[in-house]
Amino acid sequence: MTWPLDNASITHGIQLAVAPVFLLTAVSGMIGAVAGRLARIIDRGRQLEERALSSQDAVFLAFADNELVQLRLRGRLANGCIALLTTCAFLIGLTIILLFLGETASFRISAWAVGGFLAGVVSFLCALLCFLAETVIATRLLNFRRPPPRDAQG
Fold first, then answer.
1. Is residue 51 part of a domain?
2. pTM value?
3. Is 1 a member of any domain?
4. C-alpha–C-alpha distance, residues 31 and 112, integer Å
5. Residue at 154 is within a domain
6. What whole-number distance in Å separates Cα of residue 42 and Cα of residue 35?
C-alpha cells in the first residue's frame, strides 16, 4: 500500500494536528499543579498521622481524625483529576494522529478525530470539576480552628 504524499498535504496535515497541541500544553500544566497539590495532601496526612500517634489528647485526636477524612477525600479527587487529565492527553494525542493520517493518507477517519477531540475536552472539563471540588474542600478546612496539641501547651 503506497500513500501519495505530497508537500501540500503533509503541511496541511501538520497545521490541522498542531491546533490540539495547545490543549496538551494546558493539560500538562494542570497535571503539574494537581500533582503538587497531591504531594502536599500526602505530606500533611503523614504529618497529622504521626502527631496523632504520639498524642493522648482526645480533642486533638478527634480533630485529626476529621482532617484525615477530608485529606483522603481530597486525595481521591486529586487522583481522579490526574486520571481524567491523562485520559484527555491520550485522546488529544490520538486526535492528532488521526487528523494527520486523515489528511496525508486519505483515510476517512474525520468522525473518529472529532469524537476523540470531543471526548478529550469532556475529560478535561470533568478534571476541572474535580480540581474545583478539591480546592473548595481545602479552603473549607481553613474555617476550622485547629486546637494545639496539649503536649505543646506545656
1. yes
2. 0.79
3. no
4. 26
5. no
6. 11
Kindly report the length of the chain: 154
Q: pLDDT band for position 154 (50/70/90)? A: very low
Domain coverage including residue 79: 7-143
Question: Which residue has cell 493522648?
Answer: 56
**Spatial distance between the Cα atoms of 88 and 21, rounded to a whole number of angstroms:** 12
H-type helices in the chain, by residue range? 7-18, 21-53, 58-104, 110-141, 150-153
Helix axes 58-104, 7-18, angle to 10 degrees: 160
Q: What are phi and psi of 93, to 5 degrees?
A: -60, -40
C-alpha cell recorded at residue 57: 489528647
Over residues 115-151, the pLDDT tens digits come to: 999 999 999 999 999 999 999 999 987 766 555 555 5
Say which residues have a Cβ less than 8 Å from residue 140's Cβ, sequence separation at least 6: 70
For residues 4 and 32, give the distance between their C-alpha atoms in angstroms, rounded to a whole number: 41
